[in-house]
Amino acid sequence: MAKDPSHINPELPEKGQRLLTADAYVEGILSGDRYMLSRAITIVESRAEKYRKVAIEILDRCMPRAGNSIRVGITGVPGVGKSSFIEKLGLHVIEKGKRLAVLAIDPSSRISKGAILGDKTRMEKLSARASAFIRPSATGHSLGGVARKTRESIILCEAAGFDVVFVETVGVGQSETAVSHMVDFFLLLVLAGAGDELQGIKRGIMELADAIVINKADGKNLENAEKARMAYLRALQLFPPKESGWSPPVMTASALSGLHLPRLWDAVEAYRKHTQENKYWEARRKEQLRQWLHESFEDLIYQRLHDDEALNRQMKQLENEVIQARLSAAGAASLLFKSWVEGLHGKG
Amino acid sequence: MAKDPSHINPELPEKGQRLLTADAYVEGILSGDRYMLSRAITIVESRAEKYRKVAIEILDRCMPRAGNSIRVGITGVPGVGKSSFIEKLGLHVIEKGKRLAVLAIDPSSRISKGAILGDKTRMEKLSARASAFIRPSATGHSLGGVARKTRESIILCEAAGFDVVFVETVGVGQSETAVSHMVDFFLLLVLAGAGDELQGIKRGIMELADAIVINKADGKNLENAEKARMAYLRALQLFPPKESGWSPPVMTASALSGLHLPRLWDAVEAYRKHTQENKYWEARRKEQLRQWLHESFEDLIYQRLHDDEALNRQMKQLENEVIQARLSAAGAASLLFKSWVEGLHGKG
């Protein structure tokens, strides 16, 4: 029980556990050990300075073994039935002989032990499977931070041999964009509504979608779902063609009955084939890596500034000087920068 | 002719001119010399490293003499008649015995000599007045940069004794928000349209307004303008009360006939009185200064990163390493940060 990765609280890295060498984690990951993978993700997700060196070593050594999965982002507003859908689609994927990792991003709430157990309950059947790994992402202080960590978790999962990675995100504005930048295929789950079928769907998110799925197409809802499908299909026609050359399918599906889930997975595989043939796949992956480096660098600078107590103290003093009109903001910024750099150098 | 500040190209700081000491610029500014003010703004706006020290000294020494104007942001979509409106309102303000500086922000286009002459032509009567100073802002590489520079220009104008500062911005999304953060009073100019009166007005911008003016309310347009006024009035009632406790007036006006311009200026003065009495004025100014410091610091870091050629070369190399999966983004970011700090220290 203690070794069930679902029970490790990502807020408390390695609590009561010895920090192992990077070698030990990497060996565990490469041999497909889910427990060591989970511990390594906890270390990589931690913002703590003392884990930084080991975290980077783990990542650097996993990089050459990563990149071999298909990464699928899945989004939709709360209530759309993401968890049941992911579980059912996930079971189908596993039955096709794949190993599946599910990572969840939720920048809007902090993950408590309760939530992790909740997740476990929500995907009970999937989490019982040896070929599945389910992991909610530790929340960060910024969406950028969460996104960077999720990218890093993808790397570790791929190095551990998972050949399909689902990244789940809650339908709240910016997180979709962040997720779409780290996946190959972006899936939008929607519900057939009573009124205006497209209400609540921001144009920006529909544009990102590589497939739109009208979920809960079962029982009395089947007819409405089909109507919604036509409405989304018409709406999609208003968008310009995608750079990938891919025309996003719009389909109904049901996590309850399993309707169209195999067809949806076939579409994901068809997307991979299509974009690998036209070279979009590779070009996009390269651009994502480039972007990831720039974001990691900015994030690192932000983190260093944020964590620098001497800097924060000086900032408070200089705010006061500027408010009292004894100094200009430009002058104060210049002083701050100078002592920050000196402080950094002092720390080696 | 050569001493007309309108003819100095802000893209070429001090071209063919000796860089004076900070003393000389500050003396000129404090004595209200518009030519020296213009040269100093050019230096402060420059991103060039060689002007940085003098620029900061000028700003630091002007700060204690700044802050005594009322800062009015004026925005509206192209075609709304901003220039004629500003000229006419400006002439009214000058006739009330004020000294007026007009700064323009336009992040969407680069300022050419032509544009400056164009500006001069557009506000011919105002620019001929000894109590007026008209200055388009040099364009920056980022909106943040432009905004920071405009704040700095406000400081210099105030130190030069201008007691009213207009900041003009083109109605293109983010620039309004940036301007609203550096002014006391934010004025939205709109036109009466034929169809939906509120079309094209983003909720975000209406919320920022301390007054909405339906411009070109003259001739055949008077009736439409009055209808638009009622529509905006109704729309404003949907917003929550403003933190300032001020209820934004909605009025028709005409730069052509001068209709309601004195009444509008009375409203600006009433706003100052109202917010100085309820202490919002002072609290907001303080918060703006605090914000200005944080933005200046971020901007300085961004500028240092952007200008660092060795860093940019190393970034290109490491991008390649990451794309080839020889290194993780986190690992590469860490290497970059380390050598950036070393490089900064080397430069002293």
Please characterize this protein's 3D structure:
The structure is a homodimer of 348-residue chains. Chain A has 348 residues and is an alpha/beta fold. Chain A has two domains: 66-277, Rossmann fold; 289-347, no CATH class. Helix content of chain A is 54%, strand content 11%. Chain A has 14 helices and seven strands. Chain A has helices spanning 22-30, 34-45, 49-62, 82-95, 113-122, 124-127, 143-159, 174-180, 203-208, 222-236, 261-277, 280-307, 309-323, 329-347; strands at 70-76, 100-105, 132-136, 164-170, 185-191, 211-215, 250-252. The first copy, chain A, has a seven-stranded parallel sheet, sandwiched between helices. Chain A is globular and about 70 Å long. Mean pLDDT of chain A is 85; it is low at 1-12 and 108-120. Chains A and B meet through helix 3, helix 7, helix 12, helix 13 and helix 14 of A and helix 3, helix 7, helix 12, helix 13 and helix 14 of B.
CATH topology of the largest domain in chain A: Rossmann fold
**Nearest-angstrom radius of gyration of chain A?**
22 Å
Spatial arrangement of strands, main beta sheet of chain A: 3-2-4-1-5-6-7
- Largest β-sheet summary of chain A: 7 strands, parallel
Secondary-structure element order of chain A, as H and E? HHHEHEHHEHEHEHEHEHHHH
Most extensive interface between two protein chains, with residue counts = A-B, 50 and 50 residues
What is the CA-CA span between the terminal residues of chain A? 43 Å
Number of domains of chain A: 2
- State the shape of chain A: globular
CATH class of the largest domain in chain A, please?
Alpha Beta
| The CATH H-level homologous superfamily of the largest domain in chain A | P-loop containing nucleotide triphosphate hydrolases
- Estimated helix fraction of chain A: 40-55%
User: How many E-type strands of chain A?
Assistant: 7
